[in-house]
Amino acid sequence: MGRWLGLAGLIIALDQASKHAAQAAFRLHETLAVVPFFNLTLAYNEGAAFSFLAGAGGWQRWFFTALALVVCALLLLWLKRLPPEKKREAAGLAFILGGALGNVIDRLALGHVIDFVDFYYPAADRCLPLFSPVMTATGLHCHWPAFNLADSAIFLGAACLVWDSLRSRRSAAEETNT
User: Fold this and answer.
1) Looking at 15, 106, 115, 118, which residue is catalytic?
2) I need a surface site. Which of 37, 51, 81, 151 has the fewest CB within 10 A?
């Protein structure tokens, strides 16, 4: 279990370092165009994913912090009970744990989560669902909600768990057919 806690700790450290670098380099909402579909943009998220409940008046900070801590406790319990051969599942749990705690640190210390990764695409007239329209001098750009390394780790951890589950089911089905 120590190896997986170390991985979660590494994710927390990288997430916090990247957020501190973004805050040192940018003012709020300042943008640096990197390539035609990717910016670095400093943003603060007081809500959850996709800024859900961001303008709810402040109670959401404590709700999302408490929820994340409960989920982290459950992830630790799951990780502790996991057999040593379940490496892919353990890695997925470690990624989710590290990402969740990285965002909890922001909520506790700052009252919001620091986001800075901004992907977008140009559009002729409207954006796909979940993308935010932004009119610029060059036309309409559709932006995915800004995110950070912790969010990426949570996504990758969840993808790893899904992949592991699908592979495990296929292996079990093949064993029953032979």
Assistant:
1) 115
2) 81
Buried b (16+ CB within 10 A) or exposed e, 55-88: eeeeebbeebbeebeeebeebbeebeeeeeeeee
Catalytic-residue membership of 115: yes
What's the pTM value of the predicted model, to 2 decimals? 0.87
| Percent of the chain whose pLDDT exceeds 70 | 87
Question: Phi and psi dihedrals of 132, rounded to 5?
Answer: -100, 130
Are the beta carbons of 94 and 100 closer than 8 angstroms?
Answer: no
CB under 8 Å to 81, separation ≥6 — which residues? none
164: annotated active-site residue: no
Q: Which amino acid is at 64?
A: F
| 118 DSSP β-pair partners | 39
Asked if residue 154 lies in contact with residue 102, where contact means CB atoms within 8 angstroms, the answer is no
Among residues 15, 106, 118, 151, the one annotated as catalytic is: 151
Nearest to 104 by CA among 65, 75, 76, 74: 65
The whole-angstrom separation of Cα 54 and Cα 142 is 20
Q: Which amino acid is at 127?
A: C
pLDDT digits (tens, 9 = 90+) for 71-106: 999 999 999 999 999 999 999 999 999 999 999 999
